[in-house]
């Protein structure tokens, strides 16, 4: 095959604007990582703690707005634009959940888990699974998708069994409504199962589908989405366990969600370049 | 002068990879009762229509229009 038909190198496709924007977002996330570690170490004054808390929340809003802006630029009359809008809506739901969580926890002194914030966090799963399923389906005429879906479903079932055996049955179910409350039990059951069935498995199916594109640039942004989905699922499942264990949130867990949404935002920026006409 | 098959693969490969690009050409050729190597410029309308159908769920129309123009120009 001639050089003309070779797959593109990232340097020729990804623009300097994308590198710069992604760099700024990574720097903002790194600042939050530092602030978060200080928050959990208890070294911040009340004012600084409040500012750092809101910084993390508003960072999620920024990440959501990046994805939604890219989706709108691609155009909602394009099927791929709708896929990215669903990803952006997922990140936006998370950001809305974070705003509610912040107000309840920081300004009202209420336990935010479970709370109205969970409505938005649960909505996020709906948006993500819709985006991932649409992305997989969009390749059905280009590449075989049945085998990737079957493999992902099988892995999903095995992981569901593992979540039941190692998390829900020994820890969450025995705690029951007495310890967790009704809604606490509902969301503590939903999150780990949703992470496996609605995030991890569809993301695995998507990775197996786009793997067949090799270095084709249409697959690049979805690879980043897949990694973000894996980070999100892992962080969420770890939180369910941490909540039961009584350790609650930690700086590392906080960063897990930030990194996941950061990856979704970077994926959208890469998509903008991958879809650009040369 | 590159064959139509080579032109299509050259245009599609940067976007969907060489394997899928080749599958795309073969699928189109089969749908009009030819092998990929037998495709010629008279098959261009059928090929363009098929490429548009296959790519429209995964790429914006601006990209597809540009790819089809590349295939037509042969560069």
Would you give an account of this structure?
The complex is a heterodimer of chains A (278) and B (75). Chain A is mainly alpha-helical and 278 residues long. Chain A has one domain. In chain A, 81% of the residues lie in helices and 0% in strands. Chain A has nine helices and no strands. The longest helix of chain A has 35 residues. Chain A is globular. Chain B has 75 residues and is mostly helical. Chain B has one domain. Helix content of chain B is 71%, strand content 0%. Chain B has three helices and no strands. In chain B, helix 1 packs across helix 2, helix 1 packs across helix 3 and helix 2 runs antiparallel to helix 3. Chains A and B meet through helix 4 of A and helix 1, helix 2 and helix 3 of B.
List the helices and strands and how they pair.
The complex is a heterodimer of chains A (278) and B (75).
Chain A: H1 10-13, H2 16-41, H3 46-74, H4 79-107, H5 117-138, H6 146-180, H7 182-210, H8 220-245, H9 251-274
Helix pairs in contact in A: 2-3, 2-9, 3-4, 3-9, 4-5, 4-9, 5-7, 6-7, 6-8, 7-8, 8-9
Chain B: H1 4-31, H2 44-55, H3 61-73
Major β-sheet profile of chain A: none
Ends distance of chain B: 10 Å
Supply the helix-strand structural class of chain A.
Answer: mainly alpha
Give the mean pLDDT of chain A: 92
Give the amount of beta strand of chain B, in percent.
under 5%
Largest sheet of chain B: none
Terminal residue distance of chain A: 21 Å
Uncertain residue ranges of chain A: none
Which oligomeric state applies? heterodimer
Average the pLDDT over all residues of chain B and give the rounded result.
91
Short description:
Chain A is mostly helical and 278 residues long. Chain A has helices spanning 10-13, 16-41, 46-74, 79-107, 117-138, 146-180, 182-210, 220-245, 251-274. With 75 residues, chain B is mainly alpha-helical.
């Amino acid at each position: 095959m001639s050089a003309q038909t070779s797959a593109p190198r990232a340097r020729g496709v990804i623009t300097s604007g994308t590198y710069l924007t992604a760099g700024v977002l990574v720097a903002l996330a790194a600042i939050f990582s530092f602030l978060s570690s200080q928050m959990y170490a208890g070294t911040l004054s009340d004012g600084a703690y409040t500012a750092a808390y809101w910084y993390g929340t508003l960072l999620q809003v920024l990440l959501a707005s990046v994805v939604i802006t890219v989706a709108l630029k691609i155009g909602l009359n394009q099927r791929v634009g709708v896929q990215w809008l669903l990803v952006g809506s997922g990140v936006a739901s998370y950001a809305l959940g974070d705003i509610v969580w912040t107000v309840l926890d920081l300004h009202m002194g209420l336990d935010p888990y479970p709370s109205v914030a969970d409505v938005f966090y649960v909505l996020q799963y709906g948006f993500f699974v819709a985006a991932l399923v649409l992305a997989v389906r969009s390749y059905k005429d280009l590449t075989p998708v049945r085998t990737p879906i079957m493999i992902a479903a099988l892995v999903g079932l095995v992981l569901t069994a593992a979540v039941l055996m190692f998390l829900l049955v020994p820890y969450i179910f025995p705690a029951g409504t007495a310890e967790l409350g009704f809604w606490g039990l509902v969301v503590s059951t939903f999150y780990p199962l949703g992470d496996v069935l609605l995030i991890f498995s569809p993301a695995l199916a998507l990775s197996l589908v786009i793997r067949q594109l090799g270095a084709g640039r249409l697959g690049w942004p979805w690879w980043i989405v897949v990694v973000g989905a894996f980070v999100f699922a892992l962080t969420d499942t770890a939180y369910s366990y941490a909540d039961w264990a009584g350790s609650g949130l930690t700086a590392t867990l906080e960063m897990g969600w930030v990194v996941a949404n950061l990856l979704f935002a970077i994926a959208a920026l890469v998509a903008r370049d991958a879809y650009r006409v040369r | 002068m590159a064959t139509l098959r080579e032109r299509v693969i050259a245009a599609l490969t940067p976007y969907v990879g060489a394997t899928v690009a080749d599958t795309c050409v073969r699928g189109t050729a089969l749908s009009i009762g030819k092998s990929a190597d037998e495709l010629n410029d008279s098959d261009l309308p059928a090929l363009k229509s098929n490429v548009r159908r296959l790519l429209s769920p995964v790429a914006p129309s601006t990209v597809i229009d540009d790819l089809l123009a590349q295939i037509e120009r042969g560069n």
